[in-house]
Design brief:
This protein has 158 residues and is mainly alpha-helical. It is built from 5 helices and 2 strands. A hairpin with a 3-residue loop joins strand 1 and strand 2.
Length: 158
């Protein structure tokens, strides 16, 4: 699995795991983005994060503002996923186990989808996917960071 450049110098594919997961994560990001756009078009709200800016409805989990809810689903995804990609790429470039990294990214995708679909968009926005997504993502990020550090421990003399 390599590419040839110039005079036939073989360059190996450096980030196949990270590259593998770009499509499914991007597809879900596009879904989240389109939900925000749908709320904006449906309600003719072109700027801002709430439909009724005069009334702060952001903390009302029983009847959430639909634009605010979809915006938060989108932003929560963007707050966590890019960092996971960076940590995965660092681990992969430092010789991380590709099977382990694939499992980590698959789990991350599942818990991020669960966070939105079974958590924030469920009844009262308090479904079981919400804490699973939150704490699962934190644990996964911590695990990827620790794994990346473990892979380069020899650099620091350990």
């Amino acid at each position: 699995m390599s590419s040839t450049i110039g005079l036939g110098v073989a360059i190996p594919k450096m980030l196949p795991v990270t590259g593998t997961w770009t499509l499914p994560f991007t597809a879900y990001l596009l879904l989240l983005s389109n939900r925000v756009v749908y709320q904006r078009i449906k309600n003719k709200q072109w700027i801002g994060s709430q439909l009724n800016a005069d009334k702060d409805n952001s903390g009302n989990h029983e009847n959430p503002d639909p634009l605010f809810l979809e915006s938060r689903c989108h932003m929560n995804f963007l707050e966590n996923v890019p960092y996971a990609f960076v940590l995965t790429a660092i681990a992969e470039l430092n010789g991380g186990n590709r099977t382990l990294l694939n499992y980590a990214m698959g789990i991350l995708l599942a818990i991020r989808i669960g966070h939105v679909e079974l958590g924030m968009r469920s009844k009262d926005t308090l479904g079981p996917g919400r804490p699973l997504g939150q704490f699962g993502t934190q644990a996964l990020l911590a695990g990827l960071a620790a794994y990346g550090s473990y892979l380069i421990k020899g650099y620091w003399g350990y």
